[in-house]
UniProtKB/TrEMBL annotation:
One Pfam family cited in the UniProt record for this chain: AAA_22
Name of the featured protein: AAA+ ATPase domain-containing protein
Domain AAA+ ATPase: 69-378
Region span, Disordered: 573-617
Comp. bias regions, Low complexity: 581-590
Organism, scientific name: Burkholderia vietnamiensis
């Protein structure tokens, strides 16, 4: 058997000794585990505070009361902070008080039923009167049917809500304070709900029954007898708008609004009226023979006065005793003197209430004058941790003995009024183990009271408490939560310790540094071993930064738990362990001043200073804010803007330096930092569309090699993007693991997008080729054609062209823009260049080109890869937009309109067998003849313009153009885009319009000439002249 087993309490000892409800704790255990804390004394009127001790609290309760006033000591604080424990502690002090024989102490636990509370109050009566009253009280309580009582409670609550709302309105009006508005609204809405029989049956019935039953029978959880915000979450059986009255629907809508705030307000408002409502249905006055509880207690105090005794009430939680709160409040404030004469025994009350309760009981607060606050917030981290260390030591020591042994020791020990704790035996002092196990035990350390902390140590106490007591970066002192969530749950793992398997892998979610996880893998530890080592390192060894230097904890810690020692050297058994906070405390208390709790614990002759950070260890790794942020990175915790931006930039810079993109015919391309997606999805600037590379998959822990690689790149960047520094070889290896993984993803992405971009560029250039007349092949474009410069085209005068032509020309001009830039992109996706920065193409990847031109592309054309060169110009973007499948129809429609407008009159001007030379000669003869006969139309077109038009229409190649014009006319439109383009651009639009303009000019000239000749012929008598003019007219037949 492992001797350390004796120091780990078994399940029975844990169950009986680690109790958090004070009323269930034996007084021996209460004193054995009590941890002195510093209180705060808050003055009721000024709200000023000052530190106070527990002795100050006791003295306040037992102060002289010669003036006949009642004594009220009100303990306040957050739930779980130990208020009830302090009330029980006062009871233990009173049991040893010199005046104990003159006291009648009535302790009222917070879990007691209302019946039991009344019985406890009546206990001083004793005798037949007590028996009669308690008998009748019991009968009255037993006669209550809980379901019927729940219905009565609903009615009583509705009746109480109306005056409650009116009272708040009156107070708000007098004080001119509208802060109570939400509570007034809540009271009105809730009144409608609790009065509605459908809502009561479908919803509130179970809630009210729970409260009634808990009040009648008592409960281990006082929350069961109180309204909770969750009680006001409507069940599925209550649907808004379904066969419910309008006022009920409005109330339901109000509850569902304000993100849950209204539900919290509803719980507070109903709780405020619960006390009088419960009194209405329980009717204690009838059970007490038509006397109120206050009257019965008054009779008791009269009798106690005759006996020379005082009445002391110890109320562990007044807020949990709805149904009898007001009677208790009345009893507390009832003074012993009337008109200067003592008529009843003095009364002293110690009462624990949750924060804010006394604000609703101003009379009590006025009488008390002081609130005694058990602090939970505003305590520095080091103090909270030290309090937890001391608490852990006391509970472990008590649990090791067990309750029976503690009770025997307590009952047989001599009473020491000056030291209530002198009798507590030390398990460590009474237990002997051999030297080897003694060293292991010492490695876990001791509390200031010299109780062994095994199986915890100060570092583990802080680490395990962090998830429970640290909220939004602030520590809270909550003993109940610590005992339940840390001590009890950890000690329940004793069977694993006995099997040599504690702590298990992933014990309480260890979040060791990525470097550590990788080091453990590299050192060959099996997976189950790595998990246990990680648990030890994170919780018991202070989450070290490196395994190259041991932490300042002993290797005996690992030996005790049968966990392999993962560090390079031996643990330091004599050095100090500092858990950093910035200030190492000496003696601190919960109040922040010197007092009863020391900031130091001992561990086997070592001095362990409890602090709020992790273990400080020597490491060659340079810690940076960026590295720390990465270690805290979780799948559900997004990186702050600067960290996420730096992560993307580091990865992109490293990959750009690493990749030789020209080896992949990706000249001028680069990795864009905007591609990288970082979990969670809410991270700022995460790509949602377009190019995306997941650094790691969502909804999974951040792999350690990613964090390690990023931290290595961070140091590489800090060192001027150099690997020349101490420890760089390890960083280089870590960075390579990350970059190798990302390189494949990046290359796959870039090659895929390059193929897509290449398809877009090739298709855009091909459509430009068709528009420009460079090719008439609808499919399988020639690479040579794609790289051909745009041909020169006729210069057209815009003012002479109608709206249809101008619109089509403008569309065409924009569609054929940016050609040089598109060709440059095309080459960069296909070519090998002379050097990474060169511009000379040395080879072409023809296979990539063949595959690209066959690839289907989406309707919208946008280049994904940005490259290192200039950004795409507006001309390029405009051309891509107009040529893309989603917009090409607009271009085709405008082209078709222009062709329809110009093609017919132009084609009809020429025969299919048009002979340009003879036509030119004939046209020139007409012009010359008109000049010789002085027949040139006055005010008509000038001779040079006519000569120029004739020259253009008889230029070399015009026959081919005229043939194409006739083909344009007969080719039907095709549903295929490229075939339609071929049909519409057989003669490029500028050329078509230019021919049309020249034809129109000549026709206009010939028409004017014919008219002039007709006029001249009518005035000529000479037969020869008439014949000459007839010959000229005959020559004008082309114009007809």
């Amino acid at each position: 058997m492992n001797p350390l087993d004796a120091y780990w309490p078994d399940a029975a000892q844990v169950a009986e000794c680690l109790r958090t409800e004070a009323e269930t704790v034996d007084q021996a255990l209460l004193l054995a585990v009590h941890q002195p804390v510093t209180l705060r004394r808050r003055i009721a009127e000024s709200k000023s505070e000052e530190a106070a001790t527990e002795n100050d609290l006791l003295e306040a309760l037992m102060r002289p009361i010669h003036d006949g006033s009642s004594v009220i000591v009100a303990l306040t604080g957050a739930s779980g902070v130990g208020k009830s424990h302090m009330v029980r502690w006062l009871g233990a002090q009173l049991d040893r008080h010199p005046q104990r024989d003159n006291m009648v102490v009535v302790s009222i636990p917070k879990t007691a039923s209302l019946r039991r509370v009344v019985e406890l109050i009546l206990e001083p009566l004793s005798g037949d009167e007590y028996d009669a009253l308690t008998h009748d009280l019991g009968r009255a309580m037993e006669a209550l049917d809980p379901p019927k009582a729940a219905e009565l409670l609903a009615t009583a609550l509705a009746e109480e809500l109306e005056p409650y709302a009116q009272r708040l309105m009156d107070e708000s009006r007098v004080a001119r304070d509208h802060s109570q508005g939400p509570r007034i609204t809540a009271a009105r809405q809730l009144r409608e709900l609790v009065r509605d029989p459908d809502i009561r049956d479908r919803w509130f019935k179970n809630v009210l029954l729970r409260i009634v039953t808990s009040s009648l029978s008592g409960t281990a959880d006082p929350a069961h007898r109180q309204f909770q915000p969750s009680d006001f979450e409507a069940p599925e059986t209550v649907a808004l708008g379904a066969d419910l009255r309008d006022v009920v629907n409005r109330a339901l809508a109000w509850l569902a609004s304000a993100n849950g705030t209204n539900r919290t307000t509803a719980a507070e408002v109903l709780q405020a009226v619960l006390d009088p409502a419960l009194r209405t249905i329980f009717r204690f006055t009838e059970a007490l023979h038509q006397r109120t509880i206050q009257e019965v207690v008054n009779d008791i105090r009269v009798q106690l006065l005759e006996d020379g005794k005082e009445l002391i009430l110890l109320i562990e939680d007044l807020a949990a005793l709805s149904g009898i709160q007001q009677p208790l409040l009345d009893i507390m404030i009832s003074e012993s003197d009337e008109k200067g004469v003592r008529v009843r025994a003095p009364i002293r009350t110690a009462v624990a209430v949750t924060d804010g309760f006394l604000a609703r009981a101003q009379t009590v607060l006025t009488r008390a004058k002081v609130e005694w606050v058990v602090p939970s917030e505003g305590i520095d981290e080091a103090t909270v941790v030290q309090l937890l260390v001391e608490l852990t030591g006391r509970y472990l020591n008590a649990a090791r003995w067990g309750i029976d042994h503690l009770k025997r020791e307590f009952e047989t020990a001599e009473r020491d009024c000056d030291n209530l704790y002198a009798w507590v035996p030390s398990f460590d002092s009474a237990t002997l183990i051999d030297a080897a196990f003694s060293e292991q035990l010492a490695a876990f350390g001791q509390s200031k009271a010299e109780y062994s902390l095994f199986p915890f140590n100060p570092i583990a106490i802080r680490s395990l408490a962090t998830s429970v007591l640290k909220v939004d970066g602030r520590w809270k002192f909550n003993p109940r939560a610590f005992i339940n969530e840390v001590l009890t749950k950890t000690l329940s793992q004793r069977p694993l310790f006995e099997q040599g398997a504690f702590p298990p892998a992933n014990f309480r979610n260890p979040e060791v540094r990525s470097d550590i996880r990788l080091s453990l893998q590299h050192r060959g530890f099996a997976q189950d071993q790595r998990g246990r080592i990680e648990s030890m390192l994170f919780h018991w060894a202070g989450d070290p930064r490196s395994l190259t230097t041991p932490p300042s904890v002993s290797s005996d810690l690992f030996t005790a738990f049968s966990v392999p020692w993962p560090f390079d050297g031996e643990g330091k058994k004599t050095s100090a362990v500092s858990l950093r906070t910035g200030n190492a405390p000496s003696t601190t208390t919960a109040g922040g001043s010197g007092g009863s709790v020391s900031g130091a614990s001992t561990a086997g002759g070592q001095q362990i200073t409890v602090d709020s950070g992790r273990t400080t260890v020597d490491t060659s790794e340079e810690a940076t804010a960026y590295g720390e942020a990465l270690e805290a990175w979780k799948p559900n915790i997004r990186l702050v803007n600067d960290i996420s931006r730096r992560t993307r930039t580091l990865v992109a810079d490293a990959l750009n330096q690493r990749l030789e993109v020209d080896d992949w015919c990706l000249h001028g391309q680069k990795v864009d930092f905007n591609w990288f997606w970082l979990p969670p999805a809410s991270n700022v600037n995460n790509p949602t569309t377009g190019l995306m590379i997941e650094l790691c998959a969502p909804d999974m822990d951040i792999p350690p090699h990613i964090v390690a690689g990023l931290k290595a790149l961070d140091r590489w960047d800090i060192k001027g993007k150099s690997w020349d520094y101490t420890g760089a070889e390890n960083d280089y290896a870590a960075a390579n693991v990350l970059l190798d993984e990302l390189e494949h993803k990046v290359l796959d992405l870039m090659l895929s997008e390059a193929s897509r971009d290449l398809s877009i560029a090739a298709l855009a250039l091909h459509r430009q080729d068709l528009l420009l007349g460079i090719t008439n092949r609808p499919e399988n474009p020639s690479l040579k054609d794609l790289l051909t410069d745009a041909p020169e085209e006729p210069l057209l005068q815009g003012e002479s062209i109608d709206a249809v032509g101008r619109k089509a020309l403008e569309q065409r001009r924009k569609a054929t823009g940016g050609r040089a830039h598109l060709q440059d992109r095309l080459k960069k996706y296909l070519a090998c260049y002379q050097g990474n920065l060169g511009s000379t193409v040395m080879a072409i990847d023809t296979e990539r080109y063949r595959q690209a031109v066959k690839q289907e592309v989406e309707d919208k054309w946008v280049f994904a890869l940005k490259g290192r060169g200039p950004r795409d110009t507006d001309d390029v973007l405009d051309a891509l937009d107009r040529l893309s499948p989603r917009s090409i129809e607009v271009l085709l429609r405008d082209l078709s309109g222009a062709v329809d407008r110009y093609l017919s009159p132009t084609a009809e001007a020429f025969g299919e067998d048009h002979a340009r030379v003879s036509w030119r000669d004939e046209m020139k003869e007409i012009v010359d003849h008109a000049n010789r006969q002085s027949s040139w139309p006055s005010g008509a077109i000038a001779p040079p313009a006519v000569h120029a038009a004739i020259e253009r229409l008889s230029a070399d190649g015009i026959e081919t153009t005229i043939q194409r014009l006739h083909k344009m006319r007969v080719v039907e439109a095709s549903p295929e885009t490229h075939r339609r383009l071929v049909a519409l651009t057989a003669v490029p639009l500028p050329r078509l319009i230019a021919i049309y303009e020249d034809v129109s000019l000549l026709r206009s000239f010939l028409a004017s000439l014919s008219k002039t000749i007709d006029q001249q012929t009518g005035s000529i008598d000479d037969q020869a002249a008439i014949q000459a003019h007839d010959a000229l007219i005959a020559a004008l037949s082309w114009g007809e």
